[in-house]
Write a structure and sequence with these properties.
By secondary structure, this protein is of the alpha/beta class. It has one domain: Rossmann fold, CATH 3.40.50.300. About 50% of the residues lie in helices and about 10% in strands. The chain has 9 helices and 5 strands; from the N terminus they run E-H-E-H-H-H-H-E-H-E-H-H-E-H. A 5-stranded parallel beta sheet has the order 2-3-1-4-5, sandwiched between helices. The two termini are about 15 Å apart.
Length: about 200
């Protein structure tokens, strides 16, 4: 395949969009970009003293490989820098360039189908209840050695949702033409299968 085909997958934290995006990219042979990693990398830079806008403007591919980008502390920092318009703008061009690459691309984030790639060929919005998402994140943190408790994780999930959904710049919401997949009661396999079916319908 030499032509581009862009798949936009949005959704809140721990809904499963990353897992689904990777599986979809592998299934179709497309490149994958976790756009949240861009914001996590900026957030990590801010935590060590850099200014948010400068950190975004100076972001390199190597920064996306840094250790510790999946910690709860970096996740909160990422959510905070993501509300800054100048930070978002600095990262838009990178994302749009990736989306147009020959051979197809899957981008997952919070505003891919609404802002970054409003003309994406296929759009999905992956969601789940806050309690289910908090339980998933809690298990991840426990397995990573964190001593976080469930109530704290749930409060963090809800606070992040509130911030992401109500920010002035590119709030988290489904694109009007996105297929919504609620993973609350779905296995990973069932969620991936639903995503593949939705995308194939857009290809035909």
């Amino acid at each position: 395949m030499t032509t581009s085909f862009t798949i936009a997958i949005d959704g809140p934290a721990a809904a499963g969009k990353g897992t689904i995006s990777k599986a979809v990219a592998k299934h179709f042979g497309f490149a994958h970009l976790d756009t949240g990693l861009l914001y996590r990398a900026v957030g990590a830079k801010v935590l060590v003293g850099e200014k948010p806008v400068e950190a975004a403007q100076d972001l390199t591919a190597e920064d996306l490989q840094a250790d510790g980008l999946r910690t709860a502390e970096v996740a909160q920092a990422a959510s905070k820098v993501a509300v800054i318009g100048e930070v978002r703008q600095a990262l838009v061009d990178f994302q749009r360039s990736f989306a147009r690459r020959a051979g197809g691309a899957v981008l997952d984030g919070r505003d891919i189908g609404t802002v970054i790639c409003p003309d994406a060929d296929a759009k999905l919005f992956v969601t789940a209840s806050p309690e289910v998402r908090a339980e998933r994140r809690y298990k991840e943190l426990r397995e990573a050695g964190s001593d976080s408790d469930f109530e704290t994780v749930l409060a963090d999930v809800k606070a992040r949702d509130e911030r992401d959904m109500n920010r002035a710049e590119a709030p988290l919401k489904p694109a009007v033409d996105a297929v919504v997949i609620d993973t609350s009661d779905l296995s990973i396999e069932a969620a991936v299968a639903a995503a593949i079916v939705a995308i194939k319908e857009k290809q035909s």
